[in-house]
Amino acid sequence: MSDVELVKKMLRAVLQSSKHGVAMTRLQGDYRALTGEIIPYRQFGHGSLESFLHSLPGVVRLERSSAGEVMCFAGVCEETAHIAQLVARQKNVKKSGCSKLLNFQMRAKSSSLFSHNGNMHTQKSRQCIYWSHIIFCNNPEAKGTAILAFCRGNQGDANFWVGLKKIITAALRFLSGCTNFVSSLFLLFSQTECDVCCVVSSAQQKPVNSADVEVVQGRVKQLLQKYCSGVWLSKIPQLYRIMFQEELHMHKELATWTHICTSSNAKQPTPAQQTTRILRTLAINIPPSAQKSKPPLSPTSPNSTKLDFSFPETPKAHSHSPITPPSTPPSHQPLTPEIKQKLRQLLSKYSQGLWAHALPQLFQEAFGCVFSPNVLEDLSLLADACMVEYPMPDNRKRAILYALPCQVQTQPRPRPPPLVLPYTGNPHVPPLIIPTTDFLSVLVMEVSSTDNIVLRFVGEGYSKALEVLEEAMLQFYNTVGAGLCLLSPKIGQLVAAAIEDDAVLRAQVHLILEDTVKVYCVDHGFFEVVSRKKILQLRDQFLTLPFQATTCQLAGLEPFSTDGVVLKTLESLAVGRTLLVEIVEREDTPAIVLYDTSENEDVNVNAVCLKALQDKSMENPLQVNSVYTNVCVTNVCSDGSIYCQLPSRGQAKLKDIMDKIEAHFISQLTWELLVSKPFCGKVCLAKYKGKWARAEIINLHGSQVLDILFLDLGLPASLEVSELREIPPIFLKELITIPPQAIKCILEELNADGSVWPPEAVLWLRETVLNKVPSCMKIVKLDETRTVHIYLFTGNGAQDLQSSVNCQLASCPFWQRDIHFSKITRVSEPILPEAGDSPYTALALSNGLTLPPQLDLPGVGQNMDVFVSVACHPGHFVLQLWQHLYKLVVLMGEMILFYNKQEVTQINIQKNNVYAAKIDNNWHRVLVKGVLTNGLVSVYELDYGKYELINYSQLQPLIDEFRQLPFQGISAQLAGVKQGFWAEEASMVFRNHVEKKPLVAQIESFEEGDWPWERKISVYLVDTTHEDNDIWIHNIMVEFLDEINRAA
Questions:
Q1: Kindly report the CA angle at 654 between 649 and 660, in degrees rounded to 5?
Q2: Confidence class of residue 825 from pLDDT cuts 50, 70 and 90?
Q3: Cα–Cα distance between 10 and 145 in angstroms, integer?
C-alpha cells in the first residue's frame, strides 16, 4: 500500500467517526490523535492542507458552515457505506477532542514496519500502523469506527483473523464508553469468528483501564475545586466537557469515588423514582483542605436540594459512611491561565518532549516565576495544557510532557528563491518527496550560501531513476524525437536540452539570446548556454519523475550564511562530492548536517565551517622545548591525557564575554534561547559549576539525553536537552571567533599508547594537578595530529625532569602492571546455587541486588514483532521485542546521565555477575564472561546479545534502579531448517536478510535455562516489509542450501 493510500485510510477513520463533520482547523489534531503524525500534505506536492483535501474527492467532502468555517465530511463509497450508516445512528454528542495524555513521539520512527495483529498477510507492515494507532487513540468513537472500517475491509481474508482475538482484547479495554462500537463489532464478528465474537461480547463487562480512571479522577478533582459549595451530579458531564473538551463516560461511577469527592441525597426519592432521580439529586464537592474540619451539619429544611459537607477532625476508623473518604494528601490548587500559557510556550520549543522534573528550574530561568513542584505529584492538573507520557509505566515519577498538536506553532525559516520559475504553460510535474530516513546520501552540486545549497538525493527512486530517465531521453531524441526542435522557446518553458552528444537533459529556459538560450538543468542544478538548434520539445512521458535538484540549509550556520570564509571552506569540502546528510528539520527547505565519511573518521562539515571562523591569533603559539607557566589543568581523562589552559589573548576575551552573558541571562528572560533542535556539532551554552560555558554537542542518545564537550575545559559531560541554551545573538559572532582554550596533552613516557589507565593512577593525577594553579609544562614533541607531549610540573619553579609529575607517577607502586590489575577478583567457575535456592536467588545474593523479572513472551504458535540486533548464523541470533525498544532507549539514557557523573571507583569483578559497562560511549547492562590477565574483561550485552572486550575500569555496579526492566536480548535459532554446522556463505546470506532489521517472529518452541540469558527460542522469521509478498527466511535458507548441495 502506498503512502497516499495509507493517509486516505487514516483520514476516512478520522472523518467517519463524526456525522456532523470535523472542522478543518481541528482535523490535524484529530488525525495526530489517531496516528501520532500530522497529515503530510507537503510530501504529496501540496502547499496547503485544503489543497490536499480537494485532491481527495472520494475521501473528503468539504463544505462551508453557516459560521463560515470549512467542515470536512467523510466521502461515502460502497466499502464504507455501512460505516456511514452506523455513524448516522450515533447520538448527537460533541466529538471528543484529541488526546491530551498520550503521545507517540517516544516510539521509534520505523515502528510502521511491524504489525500487532499477528497475521502474515502481504499488507501486514501497513496494517500494523493502523492497529497501533487505533489502540493508543483516546477518542472512543474515532477508535471504534476505525477498527470497524479496517476489519470490514479485511473480512474476506482468512489469515487476517490469526491473532486478532488478542488485539481486540487489548483494544476493548479503552472502549467501554463506546456502546455503538461494541454492538457493531459484535454484529460484524458474529458472522466470521466465534472466538473473536466471544471476546467482543464479554468486553462490555471489562473494567476501564486504570490509567484512564486515574486521569479522569484527577480532572474531576480539578473541576470540583472551582465549586466549593458543591455541584449537581447531572451537571458534571456538561461542565467536564466545557473544561476539558472531552466527553465524560464515567459519570455513573462518580458517586463511588469517595477518595475524590463526597455525595449526598438532598431529598430522599421514592422507590419508583430512585433509579432515575438519585443521580440528579446528588451534590458533590471536595473536602476542604485548608479549613478546619467540623462535624457534618443537618439540612436546614426537608426540602433542601443541595448540601455542603464537612468532615470530623479525627474520623473514626470503623466508620464506613460514604460521606467520609479515606485520608488522602491535600489536593493541589489548579494552575492559573498565565502559568498554563507559559507552559505551552515552553513545550513548543521541545518538539521531542520535556522531562517533567525539569519544569520548576526551567520555569524559574525562562520566565522568572515559580512553578510549584507540588504539581509534579498530580500531573492531571496539566491535562488541558499538554500531553503526558510515562515511558516507564512502573515509574510514575518519570514523565515526559509534550505540547498539544493544535498548540505547536513553528516559525518558518526564510526560504531561498525557487529553482524552477513559475510558468502557466508548463504541464504538471510531481513534487520531490524528501526521503523519510534521517540519514541518506546526497550529491552536492552548487553552493551560493549556507541557506541555499543545491543537491540531489542518491539512491533508489532518485539518482537511479534519473539515470533510467535520461537514458530513455537520449534514445528517444536520437531516433523518433530527433526533429522535435522548439523554434520559439519562451522564458520559463520546460524543454529538453541536448547539452552534449551523449546527454539530453530536462531544463527550463531562463534567458533567450539571438542564437543561444540560457537554460537551467532542473535535475542537476547548473546553468548552461546552448544553441537554439539543441532546444527540443519536452514530451509528457519524461515529466513523471520529480525534478531532482532541490535546496537545503546547513543547520547552525544561519548567522554566517554569506560569510566568505565559511563559503570557501564549504565549497572545498562539499561541492561535487557525495556526502552523508542528516535531516534536522523537515520543512519545505530542510535544515541538514553534512558528513564526509570517506576518511577513517567522519568529518562534520557544518562543524568544520564553523571552526574556520576562529581567529588563530587568539591562541598561544605552541613550540617544542618551550616552557609555559600559569598553566591550569582542567580535565584528566581515563587514558591519562589531560587538558590544559594556557594564558592567551583569547582567554581574556572569553572571560569578558562570558561575564556579559551571565549578566544577560540574569537580567532578561531566556525562554527564546532554549535549544529545541539539538544536533552533532552545534555550539551552545551549558552550565559548569553554576556558570555558563561554551559546549559542543558530540553525541545524541534518543531525544532527551546528549553528550557535550565543554570547549574551553576539554571536559565531556552528559546532560538533558533542557539544560542547554542558545548563545545570545548579540554575542554569537564574537564568541565563535575565539578558539577553544583547552589543549589536549599527553604526559611523556607514561603509557602513550592510548590504553585506559588504572583507576588509582587517574585518581592520583586528578588530586595532584586538577585545577591547581599555577602549574608549569614543557613541550617535548608535537606530532602530526597536533597532539602535545609534555612534562608537567606543580608550581612555576625550577623544571627538573626528576621532579615532574610524570616521574612522580611512574614511581608510584600502583603504576606497575603486575600490581594495578591484582585487585580484580577472578572467579574461574560459575557461581552455583545452594541446595533449595533458585538460580535467581543465588545470583541476586552474589550481587547483593535482585535480577529483573523474565521477559514475557507469547506462547508457542504466536507471533511477535521483533528487531534482530545480532545474527551469527541460523543457529544463533538475538531478538528484541519491538514494543519494548523505546523503554530500553529511556533506560540507557538514564544510565548515561547517572554513570557519566560518577567518579572512577575500584570494584571487585566476578565472573557470571551483572554490571554496568561503558561501551562506545553508551552504558549497557552486561554479564561478565571472563577476566583476562592483561586487565581486559569479556562481557555479554544482556540487552543486545553482543560480546565485547573492554578494560576492567569501564565496569561499574549495576544499581537496583536499572534492574527493573527485563533483559531485552532473546537468544534464538531459526525453525524450519536442519541445525548443524553453518558455512560462512550461508551465514552471510542469513545475516544480510535479518541483521539490524525489523521482522515478525512466530514461536516454534522454547528451551528454558537456569538464567534469564540462557533461555533460547526457536522461531520462524518473516519479512513483511515488501508490498507484493511476505518473505519466510527459512525458505530462503533451504533454497540456498539446496543450491550449494547441487553445486557440490
A1: 135
A2: very low
A3: 11
